[in-house]
Structure formats: C-alpha cells, structure tokens
Amino acid sequence: MFQGSIVAIVTPFKKGQVDEEAYRRLIEFHIKNGTSAIVPCGTTGESATLDYEEHNRVIEITVEAVRKRVPVIAGTGGNSTAEAIELTAHARKVGADATLQVVPYYNKPTQEGLYQHFKAIAKAVPLPQVLYNIPGRTGVNMLPATVARLADLREVVAIKEASGDLGQMADVVRLAGHKITLLSGDDNLTLPVLAIGGKGVVSVVANIAPKDSAKLVKAWHDGKIEQARKLFYKLLPLCQSMFYETNPIPVKTALSLMGKVDGEMRLPLCSMAPANLEKLKAALKAYGLIK
Predict the structure, then answer these.
(1) Residue 132 known to be catalytic
(2) What digits encode the pLDDT tens for the residues 108-142?
(3) Is 244 a catalytic residue?
(4) I want to staple 261 with a disulfide (CB 3.0 to 4.6 A). Which of 12, 120, 131, 160 is the partner?
(5) Which of 23, 115, 119, 160 is catalytic?
C-alpha cells in the first residue's frame, strides 16, 4: 500500500462546487497510468478550503471511483485532534484504506503533544496511519525520535517526509526503518529519498505526469538505477515548475492547460502571475504535455 508513486490529487472546482465528473476522470487517468495509491484532501487537494461536507464527499467519491483498484489514503488531518478523529472515522466508515495525518498547524505543539495527537487518532480510529511532516506549512518539525516512538503504534505505518532535510529522513530510517515506511513528500527529492531507504513518493507532479513518476520509482525498486536516474532528471524541471508559486496553484493551472480540469481555485489561492504562467507553459511544452 505504501510504496511507488502516490498522487496527492487535486480537487477540481467548477462554479464554486466540487466538479465530481472531472474528479472521477482524473482518478481514471491515474489508474490507467500506473499511480500506486491516491491521496484525496491533502494540501494539493485544497483541503484547507473544503467544508466538512465537501471534505467527506471528496473521500466518498474517491473510494467509489477507485473501486479497490489502488489504495485510498484519505487526508483527514487537522490542528484539532477531535476534528481529525471525526474526519478519520468518516473516512474509515466509507472504505478508505488508510489516513494521511498532517502535523497540527498553527498551534505549534511540542514533540510530546505531537505524539499524543497521533496516538489519540490511532487509538480512536483503527486505520493505517501515514504521518505527514511538512514544517514549512505547519510551523513545527516532527523529529525522528518522535517518529520512532509513534512507529511503535500498530496503526502508524508510514511517514510522508517533506522537511527537505535528508539527514533527518535518514535518521527516521535508522531509528524506525524496520517499523515504518519512508515516503518522499517532495518530488525534487524522490531519487535521494529512495537512495536512503525510502519506498516511494507522495507526489504533486504525478497529477500531470503520472506514468513517468510511477516508472521512476519502479525502475529504482527493480534495480535499474541508471534508468531511475534518467527519469528523475527528465522530471526535475517539471517538478520545479510545480513550485513557481504556492502549491497547488501551478499544478492546477497545468491541469487546466492540459484540458483536464477547469482550473478554478478558492481564495486565498488565486491565478498565477503572468510571468510565472509563461514559465509554466514553457515547462509543459518542453515536456510535451501541451503544444
């Protein structure tokens, strides 16, 4: 369940509503192109601007559309433990295979607070849990020692690591690699993370290039190191283009340019600046994704 190219899928909107038809088409696009698992309602899915009803509905649609062909790892985290438990319980009820739990943001818990937060969710809802460390968004860095403590819980099975610190990720593998799966949370570091013992990536760029993202991880696991390296460097400029502005603005704009979604976002996210849009178009053209 927790290796390969796992897409942090966008949530399409149209006229202020979740575009269910476009979303189902995106899921089929991923199934067809080798994506290993789907993460709805993550950062890339604009979870911060989904209300509870929408959040739950997006997870329901994902489970319905996927039909057990790949795992669904539902983004159900929050900065309130009670809220995260409520969202996770619903995800389990509708058939999600696992949950992605982000480090609580804004309230800046201690390392002990982080441990108690994730432990409470695990005990309340017995569902495989993927931790998500992204200090650039949350304001708190979950340390390897805390991850190792959490790895003793049966429900905690993997971590999406987006700290950008390979040394820290290596410490996670050293301390808990026999109990927990390391996943890259940054497309720009997929190959280095695989090299230190990671098993895959929770990917933004897979939204637009799922086949190559999947081939990269598979090549590495098949021992085809040079092929994996070539795919990584082929993808790298495209990965970098996904962060010309705040994620998911570029990836959603790219999908719109590719004709797959409307491109609508919710404030405070907004349309790309013209100069960045031109740079994005150039990157997509260079990769052959648009003409």
Answers:
(1) yes
(2) 999 999 999 999 999 999 999 999 999 999 999 99
(3) no
(4) 12
(5) 160
